[in-house]
Specification:
Blueprint lengths: L2 E4 L5 E2 L8 E2 L6 E4 L8 E5 L4 E7 L3 E5 L5 E5 L3 E2 L4 H55 L1 H117 L3 H11 L1
Antiparallel strand pairs: 1-6, 1-9, 2-3, 4-5, 6-7, 7-8
Length: 272
């Protein structure tokens, strides 16, 4: 069975109202129909560049079968006997991408090798420098040994001085500990005195509060005493007034009950 390549043809359409040309995209889909007629049912849509198998053909249509088993009629307008530009361009793009990837890999390897060469050159230079420094140190080894001996003597002297200083510090530390113990005892004594002072202050405040209370009570008693004195004065005044009034009443009663002196005498004489 002969293989053919399906191409969705790019058609140029000119409109009277526009001066520019336009082209149909290469991604246009072609209808696969159930019979070789323009108005027949569409079985499926075939994509540009899709490969199909040729079964039969006439003047306007070809009968084809797709890879998924769909069978139908396709207009000759959409059929090419070779791969479309789109189908040819895809492998070229893939090859180009692969070549670019390979070029990037080679460039990375080249960069890595260049970095390695630079590192080796730096190591060589460092080795040369270290060799020169080692030779210089070898020349200075004798004078260095003498200097080390002098430094050792100086260190021994400093060590002896440090030991003496440590003994002095130990003695001073013991004295400081003793003083700290005495200070702690004095502190505890002061704390105790302070606690006693606090208790005395509390008692003093309590006594002051009681004194204020007693003063208030005395003031109340004075007020009550003055009130009682006022009441007693009022009562004495009333008693005096009543006494005077009683005396007046008694005198009046006596004057009424007793006859006049002249009349009593005449009566007496007459009776005699």
């Amino acid at each position: 069975m002969k293989k053919i390549t399906l191409l969705l043809a790019a058609s140029s359409i000119a409109f009277q109202s526009f001066a520019a040309d336009v082209w149909v995209s290469d991604e246009v889909e072609a209808p696969l129909r159930s019979s070789p007629e323009l108005n027949s049912k569409i079985v499926t849509l075939l994509k540009a560049g899709q490969q199909v198998s040729l079964i039969d053909k006439n003047d306007k249509y070809v009968k084809v079968k797709t890879a998924d088993g769909s069978v139908g009629w396709l207009s000759n307008y959409y059929v090419l006997n070779e791969k479309s530009v789109h189908a040819k361009f895809a492998p070229m793009q893939a090859a180009l991408a692969k070549a670019q990837q390979k070029a990037q890999e080679l460039q990375a390897q080249l960069d890595e090798k260049s970095s390695l060469v630079k590192q080796l050159q730096a190591d060589v230079n460092s080795t040369k420098k270290n060799a020169g420094e080692a030779a210089q140190r070898a020349k200075n080894s004798e004078s260095g040994a003498a200097k080390l001996a002098l430094d050792n003597d100086a260190l021994q002297k400093k060590l002896s001085e440090q030991n003496k200083l440590m003994k002095k510090l130990a003695t001073a530390l013991d004295a400081a500990k003793e003083k700290a113990s005495d200070a702690r005892m004095r502190y505890l004594s002061l704390v105790k005195v302070s606690e006693n002072a606090v208790d005395i202050d509390k008692q003093n405040r309590s006594l002051q509060e009681k004194a204020v209370f007693f003063e208030q009570e005395i003031q109340k008693l004075k007020t009550e005493n003055q009130s009682l004195k006022a009441q007693i004065g009022k009562k004495e005044f009333v008693i005096g007034a009543l006494t005077i009034l009683g005396g007046i009443l008694v005198g009046y009663v006596l004057s009424v009950m007793m006859p006049p002196r002249g009349r009593r005498s005449s009566r007496g004489y007459s009776s005699l």
